[in-house]
Design brief:
heterodimer; A: 77 residues; 3 helices; elongated; B: 308 residues; alpha+beta; two-stranded antiparallel ribbon; globular
Chain lengths: 77, 308
């Protein structure tokens, strides 16, 4: 999973950096940064999921209309 | 049978004496699968990333429970648990897109955040230890041919007090989303009936059932759900009679030295791990076993700590 959290200013290491580090080299600060990155990611993906569900298109109508909404018109199903 | 296999405690030679739900479920699914798994002790060569992920997830949360029971506050126990997990997963090599080290850290942290103000309290046993990772076993009124009583056995994640009642708590990780169907898979459930029965017999008769804390592991975002699985006395009695019946059936398969295949179970879920074996001509199977399987016999009486 890539880091999507904007924590670079607070901690120079991204989540990917932290995940790729030798675990024996992780400091207490690294662990705290990892936790904050993971929480920020969770918030991001929760918001993204909520947005997606609010804007989801529910196709209704004739078969032709539904295929058009789903961008499947003319395509071999 | 090799000498190594004879040191397995839950068996008398190649007859199983101590039965946990994993063994019973395998026998119910397919007697041949049971024979390969429990009697021959085979498992596919190579790492089982799902099992490894699940064991590490459980171990991390067990460590957290112990910290909390010892008096650490939530934040300190959380940070220490993630810290320990980050270090102890150094050897967890997985290319699986979901069940990997990064997502393991994410899932454990997610669980601890989700249940930050958990009303479920770990019970403290009379010996002062928290009731986590408990193993139980008890004799049943059914004797093996050697005169020993058969046993039922199992391992519990945790015993808790929740809303003034006693429950077993079981943590699950799943790749299935939390649809109605997922919860229905526990109604009924041999595993949860065995946990309920075992905890009532060995720990406390007032145990109500099992609270399941399930974590749905997805690519980017985990979800958590808590729901109870409880059964009436008659349901539990029915499960018990079923179990004795299957134990006796295993004795008959053993006496006949024949473990029939259940072809209907070959392709269920992700498929039986022994499909590649049963799919070959019987004359080829010894060779396939040598090349594709290793011996790692399951012992229901071995506690998780001992296995590690």
């Amino acid at each position: 999973m890539s880091s999507v959290s904007p924590l670079k200013e607070a901690n120079p290491k991204s989540l990917d950096d932290l995940f790729q580090m030798d675990p024996d080299q992780l400091t207490d600060d690294d662990i705290k940064a990892m936790i904050e990155h993971l929480r920020a990611n969770r918030t991001f993906f929760k918001q993204e999921k909520a947005t997606r569900s609010r804007t989801a298109v529910i196709p209704t109508g004739t078969v032709d209309e539904m295929l058009e909404i789903l961008d499947l018109k003319g395509k071999k199903l | 049978m090799s000498e190594e296999l004879e040191t397995i405690y839950g068996y008398d030679g190649d007859l199983q004496i101590a039965w946990d739900n994993t063994s019973l479920a395998t026998l119910r699914t397919c007697p041949r699968k049971y024979y390969y798994t429990n009697i021959m002790g085979l498992r596919p060569a190579g790492a089982n990333v799902h099992l490894d992920f699940g064991l590490r997830y459980h171990a991390a949360l067990e460590a957290y429970d112990r910290r909390r029971a010892a008096g650490e506050d939530w934040n300190s126990a959380l940070v220490n648990t993630v810290d320990e997990l980050a270090h102890t997963t150094k050897d967890f090599k997985s290319d699986h897109k979901v069940k990997n080290r990064n997502n393991l850290l994410r899932s454990v942290l997610g669980y601890l955040d989700h249940f930050k103000n958990d009303p479920a309290e770990t019970l403290i046993l009379e010996n002062g230890q928290p009731a986590v990772e408990l193993s139980f076993r008890f004799n049943v009124d059914l004797k093996a041919p050697n005169g020993e009583p058969y046993m039922l056995a199992g391992h519990l994640d945790r015993l808790v007090k929740y809303q003034d009642r006693l429950w077993v708590m079981d943590r699950k990780t799943t790749s299935k989303s939390f649809a109605y169907d997922y919860i229905q898979t526990f109604k009924p459930s041999g595993q949860m009936c065995q946990y309920t029965w075992g905890s009532k017999v060995v720990f406390h008769p007032e145990v109500q059932g099992v609270i399941i804390d399930a974590c749905y592991i997805a690519a980017n975002l985990d979800e958590y759900s808590r729901f109870p699985a409880s059964y009436t006395k008659d349901q539990l009695d029915e499960w018990f009679q079923n179990s004795l019946f299957y134990i006796k059936l295993a004795e008959q398969y053993h006496a006949a030295n024949y473990w029939p295949q259940n072809f209907e179970a070959c392709h269920v879920y992700q498929g039986c791990p022994f499909r590649s074996l049963c799919g070959r001509d019987p004359s080829m199977r010894d060779m396939v076993i040598k090349s594709d399987f290793v011996v790692d016999r399951w012992d229901p009486l071995l506690t998780r700590e001992k296995k590690e």
